Amino acid sequence: MRKLLTDAAHTLAPPREDRHGPLPPLMLALTVVTGLVDAVSYLALGHVFVANMTGNVVFLGFALAGAEGLSASASVVSMAAFLLGALAGGRFGTRFAAHRGRLLTMATALQSLLVATTVITAVATHGEVTTTVQYTLIVLLGLAMGLQNAVVRRLGVPDLTTTVLTLTLTGLAADSTPAGGAAPRPGRRVLSVLAMFLGALVGAALLLHTQLALTLGLALLLLVVTSTAAHLLSASDAAWVRPQP
Questions:
Q1: 50 part of a folded domain
Q2: Where does the secretion signal sit in this chain (predicted)?
Q3: Cβ contact 101:234 at 8 Å
Q4: From CA 115, how far away is CA 34, in angstroms rounded?
Q5: Rounded Cα gap, residues 156 and 142, in angstroms
Q6: CATH of the domain at 116
Q7: Considering the domain boundaries, does residue 91 fall inside one?
């Protein structure tokens, strides 16, 4: 337990020599965003995911088999939007390959614009999710999460994918001391799981007890804070901004 707490402290306040600098806590903020956004998509947009594409592939299979409460078209639209967002993220990664700080800053700024549009849409429609609103939000959020996933992949911070936890949980168990492993970064892995859980919990609570726009607004706030922090922290030529081998 002491080792977990110590590793978690280092994750939240990385030392100067850490080759990833402030990226781990910024990635954790994006993981919370994922939980919030998938809470919105699953609970308010018709049982579809905009960040968890594994879930969408499974849902698509269920829907085509005739399962009730699922939409094949919603899953397909979400995956298409995610792929377009990932394509844009790949272009960003190529353009800003030499500076990870600028890459994260620009990507989260674009995400902020996409999510801001969803907030405006939710406010303008008073939270009423018609078919048009449903697909508009799925496309915008799918683009944002595809972009995030591609950029985070390029940033290459171990155990902080921000959207997928299967490998993180697998590593937490398979690399543990009881399994005969060296147990690398257990605190970071635990924090990643907790961040996703927190985002999903808060997102679901806000949706059930308040308004859709408020949930999306919280995701927007986290993205703006992340983009601003990445911009301010990457103003120097610190080692962490350079691509890692």
A1: yes
A2: none
A3: yes
A4: 12
A5: 21
A6: 1.20.1250
A7: yes
Amino acid symbol at 66:
G
- List the chain pLDDT tens, one digit each, 245 residues: 445 434 444 444 444 446 888 999 999 999 999 999 999 999 999 999 999 999 899 999 999 999 988 999 999 999 999 999 999 999 999 998 888 999 999 999 999 999 999 999 999 998 899 999 999 999 999 999 999 999 999 998 887 888 888 777 777 777 667 766 665 667 778 898 999 999 999 999 999 999 999 999 999 999 999 999 999 988 777 788 887 76
Amino acid at 39: A
Q: Which residues contact 177 (CB under 8 A, 6 or more apart)?
A: 183
In the numeric block, which tokens belong to residue 67? 């399962």
Say how many C-beta atoms besides its own lie within 10 A of residue 122's C-beta: 24
Q: Which two tokens stand for residue 100?
A: 């990870």
Structural domain including 72 reads 22-236
What length is written for the chain?
245
Q: What would the two tokens of residue 142 be?
A: 């799918």
In a domain, 9, yes or no: no
In a domain, 244, yes or no: no
pTM across the whole model: 0.87
Q: Residue 170, Cβ neighbours under 10 Å: how many?
A: 11
Domain count, the chain: 1
